[in-house]
Amino acid sequence: MPTHEIPPLEVSDLVKVYASRRGRKQLVTAVDHVSFTISPGAAVGLVGASGSGKSTIAKIVTAAERPSSGHVTFGGQKVEALRRRGRRDYHRRVQMVFQDPYAALNPLHTVEYAVMRPAQNFLSMSAHAARDRVHELLDIVGLTPSAQYAPKLPHQLSGGQHQRVVIARALACDPQLLIADEPVSMLDVSLRADILDLLARLRHERGLSLLYITHDLLSARVVTDELIVLNKGQVVETGPTKQVLRHPRHAYTKELLAALPNPFAHAGAASGPT
Description:
The chain is an alpha/beta fold.
């Protein structure tokens, strides 16, 4: 789909406050006045350590939770104000790739069923057309021959194959924006590069916008154009991905980069990615 047909996603002054588990009177601010825009076809990374607020933002963007204040706007419509039909259309256009591919698939359903259902539910495809789409999408995500994988159950798949099925399912209803929440953190190191390359390829080939959520700056470098660094619910630094990684301005960003493994440290080489 041409990127000019994809609307921008605008997050405006987003705040999310929770009641503390220690007592209802104590409040915790998980997201603190966060604003950013994902332009058509762009890939934006939300980066931060655990507890930085990035997954909370994902829940609000996907309409799984409502903000305490602020707005998420897509196609000129405020997401939190969408009614039943509008919310259904939004969920077709904005799809999620989850962190845990094992929990994301029903162990009792085949790969074919998992990928067919979104196509049937959101696009009103016939069973025959949806089945054809399953095989097309399995080929696209690298599960070939598709006829071999379609009848399999999740326990018959490897971790990388699990995540490829989850990505195929997200693509089944022809979304405009993918939200990938730590999509490689539970995979073996040997599999991560393949999944990141797949996400980058799909974004360019299909004209998708991408919100990539991670604590891993190295993986963000592969798939994003722009980085937003979060710390304790606040944006501390933004900019083009290469610029932020090569010339970080904020102390927290420098800490994240310093924590990266550096195989050249013994040789006195500069730390951080290039």
